[in-house]
Amino acid sequence: MSKIHKIKGFFDLFPPESTAYVFMEETAREVFSRYAYQELRIPILEQTELFARSIGKETDVVQKEMYTFEDRKGRSLTLRPEATAGVIRAYIESPEAGSGGVSRFFTLGPMFRYERPQKGRTRQFHQLNVELLGEDSAFADGEILLMLWSYLQKLGLRQLNMQLNSLGCTACRPDFDTKLKNFLALSEQESLCVDCQRRARSNPMRVLDCKVKGCAAVASSAPRILDSLCRNCRDHFDRVLAVLDKTDISYELNPYLVRGLDYYQRTTFEVISTDIGAQSAVAGGGRYDGLVRDLGGPDIPGIGFACGMERLALLLRSIQERPLDFYFAVLHEDAMDTAMLMAQRLRDKGFQGEMGFQVKSIKSQLRLANRKKVKACLLLGKDELEKGQIQVKDMSTGVQRAVSQDDVEQALGLNLKTKAESFVQH
RNA sequence: GUGAGUGUAGCUCAGUUGGCAGAGCACCUGGUUGUGGCCCAGGAGGCCGUGGGUUCAAGUCCCAUCACUCACCCCA
Description:
The chain is an alpha+beta fold. The protein folds into two domains: 17-172 and 229-318, 2-Layer Sandwich (BirA Bifunctional Protein, domain 2), CATH 3.30.930; 322-420, Anticodon-binding domain (Rossmann fold), CATH 3.40.50. The chain is 35% helix and 23% strand. It is built from 16 helices and 18 strands. It has helices spanning 17-34, 48-55, 60-64, 84-93, 138-154, 173-186, 194-202, 205-208, 213-220, 231-245, 291-294, 309-313, 336-348, 362-371, 382-387, 408-412, and strands spanning 38-39, 45-47, 67-70, 76-79, 103-112, 124-133, 160-166, 251-253, 265-273, 281-287, 302-308, 316-320, 326-330, 353-355, 376-380, 389-394, 400-404, 422-425. The chain has an eight-stranded mixed β-sheet with strand order 1-5-6-11-10-9-7-8. The chain has a five-stranded mixed β-sheet with strand order 14-13-15-16-17, with helices on both faces. The chain has a three-stranded antiparallel β-sheet with strand order 2-4-3. α1 packs antiparallel against α5 and α5 runs parallel beside α10 (231-245). The two termini are 42 Å apart.
């Protein structure tokens, strides 16, 4: 029979890599809950319209990267390419939307985008998502940024840089876009790449983010959004920066930071790592004050971020997996029943261990136990069975002693519960 | 969607101007009774990604195809 292989851009996560994901998720729950954020679980499949309306019909994500298909009744559905739209949709449908208060959520899980895979980019990827709804204070921005930074610190990541920008609001952004369009129209068209000649009219801020040399040169002398903010946006942004200045977060302003989803306005940010390849953004987010209204809900502000787990995983390395407490080596067929029951008794007491199902030579079983790096090896053969005993061998010291089968728990010792896996930046 | 690179043992990779398919690590079995790690000896394991072509002869040259990787675009 021919093998069925996984589809492009999808992947299986085996240990020890899978433990890095458990670590990221557990740390997220721990950190986010300190800020009173609660976990939200939502579908990964939504009506296509939800993403088209929120992310923006003209964005690359919606135009060419979505997994979209029809269900059996011909409705257009899409595997979520990001989480915020779904969170807002769920929020609007919940009683919470009418409460008028502040809501704090986090959610995590798989996202899907149909792109060419490369380092740090897969077609199914995983994000940790945080949303703060119903508050437009600059301190809300501050809370989000501090929490994100705190989470990354808790993961043990240090070589990270946070970039900040403000995209303005509906009051000042249109004026800036006009100003920028005029500027680009006056600059030499030949110095812009073909993409940017198009962007210069449709989405001028994207030109500022282009890496092509000619475009970057034009961008360097272009007007900056940060110089064109209205009074409200300027004050808001200054307050956010004032909060950050009192912390140890190392940030820098990046007037060229343009996010790929249309719903962002005012404060936007990205966290960059320099050593995970070309796809360097490990987290990104911003304020989306008009989004809830645009999706049919009340006109309330919001801010949030997403963290890419595959990219974080590139920065994490497992240094120690918790060793098993025992390996159970059975040396005679007749001992198998007794061994099974003893192992069960140990597991009920909280010991972790693996049982060998095949009767093999003592030598090969000890070799196996050694390779598995267990703390102790339990040996049960004909002699022990007859005497009601069992051999307990400490694999680090080599010391072995025979004990009554009733005393295995004590023999395995009290030094068993060690810390869970820990991770360090490599 | 565009470009480049790589496909040989479980893993990492050698393989010369075309001439018998290789190494290291891992694995298995021994080194005297039922005792791991270190060492020594032996062993197993490959449709050389797949399909065509050139040739007396192809892992090697040519064409096609598939897969993977990295980069562009874009993004977490």
